[in-house]
Design a protein that fits this description.
Blueprint (H helix, E strand, L loop, with lengths): L3 E2 L8 H21 L4 H19 L4 H36 L1 H9 L6 H19 L4 H12 L4 H11 L7 H14 L3 H57 L5 H16 L53 H20 L3 H8 L2 E5 L5 E2 L9 E5 L4 H16 L3 H15 L1 H19 L1 H10 L5 H16 L2 H19 L3 H12 L7 H10 L6 H26 L10
Parallel strand pairs: 1-3
Antiparallel strand pairs: 2-4
Helix pairs in contact: 1-2, 1-16, 1-21, 2-3, 2-15, 3-6, 3-13, 3-14, 3-15, 4-11, 5-6, 5-7, 5-8, 5-9, 5-10, 6-7, 6-20, 7-9, 7-20, 7-21, 8-9, 8-18, 9-10, 9-19, 9-21, 11-13, 15-20, 16-17, 16-18, 17-18, 17-19, 17-21, 18-19, 19-21
Length: about 550
């Protein structure tokens, strides 16, 4: 099959081409948010639209367009599915062993207020997981941990999604920033320093947003000290680490400092009117008939065998049992930390197989070959490290290998249609990317001149909405951002970092992450409802980032840059 040449302007009118390229994205947002379709049907329908646009609008051969979709599905196996299966399996092991109830009571030691507990778990602990693992792990694990506190499933997923914003730019040991340096040829450390001066501002706002999501204005009025202490301490640590130590360590340091600051605060302050999970009951979480929501229960494996004795709210757990309950998460942190050392990383990378994807030869408009190599890095994959962590946790949880296998089977069945949703959306992202639709959107936005500094984060937001990862958005648009900056006389490092900083707000609305969130809390098929809950916050925080980046490109806030 001859190579396919991308064209950023297939219609001869850049505006018309951009509208054509926007069609799949608008379709996806409308089906999820407007019609409340389930993610798998919305993903498949949007994939169909993207294929039609690629073939009819961009003259991509039909077989090549389908091949691009298959390539995208293959990419999702390790990046999302393998990771998420193992993350939820670890949680389900705690349910099976009876340590789920122990976790629930242990988190109660943070105080009775569920809003403060949510900040520590979703924001602080979630940031630590994002720093080490990235992907959908923080959303999956934090969602179920919030359910352990008694938070209703849909609200737990929304809190985890909103919290997983400020840490994302430095997630996976700074992988998005590293990718940005690779695709632009500019020093990654410079991008990290500027991104640290952008997302640290976002970090101050996110805990306050979590209070609004959890408990509305009452939450902010009564628990604002915890949100400010957590947000400001996180922001200061993230800023200092990314600028003066190492951007790879920014989230690890920030998460630990933020959690420690909140725990110190709780020694001298507690909300005057503590709010428990029961008081956060959400009557909008009923079934499709409008029936009231049932009390929150652990998803999927709530009916599996587990000890019933001593599971009451007043039960007292020994220190040993509490340590056993937290052991899986401590092991996760340890395993991922060790995996960053070259002496460990090198052997893991030997279990990697790579090859050029068959039949997929694509050239850019300039004639440069597009990388279509498929890398099956099973040894160093995040999901593999999570699987290893789960296996190491079995003795601590006192789960027999046979039972662990049974739990894994139930975990796979728990995902159901969510698997199809993830496959469909990854196929969609690669069809849009390889056909040239993503490039068209970037070129169109870059043509706005000096105002592009305001729109620069929007480009990253589009990229993460489609790809589901900040690293993916940087790979797609990092080069475009720096090229556009040079054309309009702006700082290429500023706009390159803005691509990463703007993209983090799209994590909460990306269909991959919506599917992960609903699967984790046992609400597969209700992705549209979850989307509607977080979409407004995504846009609001994106607007904040757009204004910040624009002002940083002017004398008003240029002093914020290195």
């Amino acid at each position: 099959m001859p190579p396919y040449h991308q064209s950023p302007d297939p219609t001869g009118s850049l505006l018309l081409s951009a509208l054509l390229a926007l069609l799949p994205l608008v379709t996806l947002l409308f089906l999820l948010g407007g019609l409340r379709w389930k993610a798998h049907w919305a993903g498949l329908a949007t994939l169909g639209v993207a294929l039609v646009v690629a073939v009819a609008g961009y003259d991509m051969p039909p077989l090549l367009a389908l091949d691009a979709g298959l390539y995208g599905m293959a990419q999702s196996l390790l990046l999302i599915l393998w990771l998420t299966f193992n993350a939820i399996w670890i949680y389900n092991l705690t349910v099976r062993s009876g340590h789920f109830a122990v976790l629930r009571r242990a988190f109660g030691t943070l105080g009775e207020d569920i809003r403060v507990q949510s900040i520590v778990i979703a924001f602080c602990f979630g940031a630590l997981l994002e720093a080490l693992a990235g992907g959908g792990g923080p959303v999956a694990i934090c969602s179920v941990m919030l359910i352990a506190l008694g938070v209703s499933p849909l609200k737990a997923a929304a809190l985890a999604l909103v919290a997983d914003t400020a840490p994302v730019a430095f997630g996976g040991m700074g992988n998005p920033i590293t990718v940005l340096g690779e695709v632009t040829g500019l020093p990654a450390a410079e991008f990290g320093a500027v991104a640290g001066r952008q997302v640290s501002v976002l970090a101050v706002a996110v805990p306050l947003v979590l209070l609004l999501v959890a408990d509305g204005r009452r939450g902010v009025r009564q628990a604002w000290p915890a949100a400010l202490v957590g947000g400001i301490s996180f922001a200061v640590a993230q800023f200092l680490t990314s600028n003066y130590l190492s951007y790879q360590l920014a989230d690890i340091v920030a998460a630990i400092v933020s959690a420690g600051a909140i725990l110190l605060l709780l020694r001298v302050w507690r909300p005057g009117e503590p709010v428990t999970a029961a008081l956060l009951a959400d009557d909008r979480e009923g079934d499709a008939t409008g029936a009231p929501a049932a009390p929150a229960e652990p998803p999927a494996l709530a009916t599996t065998t587990r000890p019933e004795a001593g599971t009451s709210a007043t039960a007292t757990d020994s220190r040993a049992e509490t340590l056993r309950a937290f052991a899986p998460y401590a092991i996760i942190v340890l395993v991922f930390a060790l995996a960053q050392f070259d002496s460990v990383k090198a052997p893991l990378k030997t279990l990697t197989w790579s090859f050029d994807w068959p039949g997929l030869t694509v050239l850019t408009a300039a004639g440069t070959p597009v990388d279509t190599e498929y890398e099956f890095a099973i040894g160093s994959a995040t999901g593999t490290l999570l699987l290893l962590s789960g296996l190491l946790a079995l003795p601590f949880l006192r789960v027999r290998p046979k039972d662990a296998v049974l739990v894994y089977g139930r975990t796979l069945r728990q995902f159901g249609w969510a698997i199809l949703a993830i496959l469909a959306v990854f196929a969609l992202s690669y069809v849009m990317n390889l056909s040239g639709q993503i490039t068209t959107l970037g070129v169109w936005l870059a043509g706005t001149g000096a105002f592009f500094a305001f729109l620069s984060p929007v480009v990253g937001w589009f990229g993460v909405t489609i790809t589901g990862t900040d690293a993916g958005a940087n790979a797609l648009f990092g080069g475009l951002q720096t090229t556009a900056a040079e054309q309009i006389g702006a700082d290429p490092v500023l706009l390159g970092a803005a691509n990463s900083s703007g993209g983090v707000m799209a994590k909460m609305i990306s269909p991959q992450n919506l599917a992960i969130g609903t699967a984790a809390v046992g609400l597969v098929g209700r992705e549209g409802e979850l989307f509607r809950r977080v979409f407004g916050w995504s846009l609001l925080l994106l607007l904040l980032m757009c204004a910040l980046v624009y002002l940083q490109s002017t004398p008003v806030l240029s002093w914020m840059l290195p």
